[in-house]
Design brief:
Blueprint: H1 2-37, H2 41-58, E1 67-69, H3 74-83, H4 86-110, H5 113-118, H6 121-134, H7 136-143, H8 157-177, H9 186-200, H10 207-211, H11 227-233, H12 238-255, H13 260-282, E2 287-289, H14 291-300, H15 306-319, H16 322-328, H17 333-357, H18 365-380, E3 383-386, E4 389-392, H19 393-407, H20 412-415
Antiparallel strand pairs: 1-2, 3-4
Helix pairs in contact: 1-2, 1-9, 1-14, 1-15, 2-13, 2-15, 3-4, 4-11, 4-13, 6-17, 6-18, 6-19, 7-17, 8-9, 8-17, 9-17, 12-13, 12-14, 18-19
Length: 416
Amino acid sequence: MQQSTDLEKQSMLHTAILGAQMLFVAFGALVLVPILTGLDPNVALFTAGIGTLVFQVVTKRQVPIFLASSFAFIAPIIYGVQTWGIPATMSGLFAAGMLYMVLSAMIKWRGRGIVDRYLPPIVVGPVIIVIGLTLAPVGINMALGKTGDGSAVLVAHNTALIISMVTLLATMLTTVFAKGLFKLIPILMGIVVGYIISMFYGLVNFDGVANAAWFALPKFTTPEFNLEAILFILPIAIAPAIEHIGDISAISGVTGKDFMKKPGLHRTLLGDGLATSTAALFGGPPNTTYSEVTGAVALTKSFNPVIMTWAAVFAIFLSFSGKTGALLATIPTPVMGGIMTLMFGAIAAVGMNTLVRARLDLSQSRNMIIIALVLVFGLGGMQFGLGEFTLKGIGLSAVLAIILNIVLPREKTEQA
């Protein structure tokens, strides 16, 4: 009996350690989103943990996956915070989670075919490209030592350029040459290297960390209803919702279990949506399934969903340390800019890959028109106004792609 108890304790300790490792893999990307968008990193840690637990409840703890900050929403959050403030932006993000739930109900009702019909690669691919390229100026400005909008210089140009490019190089080398677990944390490695270089230039000040409390409540923010913010952000949720399907396919392949059937795509999408809406209730960024953690699951063969429960618990625990947020606040702007130049380009590349994998023929006028107009309208500044509401940017791209895909007739070769 004593031996059995000892084995259970060892098993629990081993599972907890694996959970901490999964959070370590996700940490760099998790905190990058709130740092870029002006949200509280501690809140993001808290909502990542809560969101993962919500997902596990909905899916009956069958899927070994971790949910945290979504990159797809960076641009709309930045715009929303600057235009309407954090509480109003949260109402839009809450609505985005609700859209996931609507898609979940549609899939439950009509099957996955409804997604393939109305949100095929020709719709999703160009929108993802717009998301990535819309963010490009923010990354470049910060890499040059400026604020994201370029309105103010925070670090001297030459110094910022050295730090950002060394950070970028470290991230690239980790991505290409690292082995094992290190290959899964290129963002974190880039931050560490850039941070060390920044210290030599005297850009890191630890006074805030020393003065911060060990225990402190995250700066929670509750949503305030804002129709304009909701209508602006809602269409943007389409791309990450479709990305969710790819992530569930990936984790299914890694574990050898078809999570599309059990617990079902409708349940996983519902869990993702509830996690996103729950995050918005506390002032956190939208949640999404993390491919980095899926890679770690594949590498370590750690298929037990309880591991993700531990990762969620550790995230919540860290969120209540004032020193965690204070330490993250010391990361210099050029460090973040160096990473973003690669990350935002990578988002656009994912959109291109979506089109390539679908083997879309751009010589067909229908495909060419959809892609061309989505890119030009989304990146060129086209906007349509209706009263106080203006549809533009990523939201306009998503709506336009869906409408064009519905109304433009398919060519005979495509129908066949």
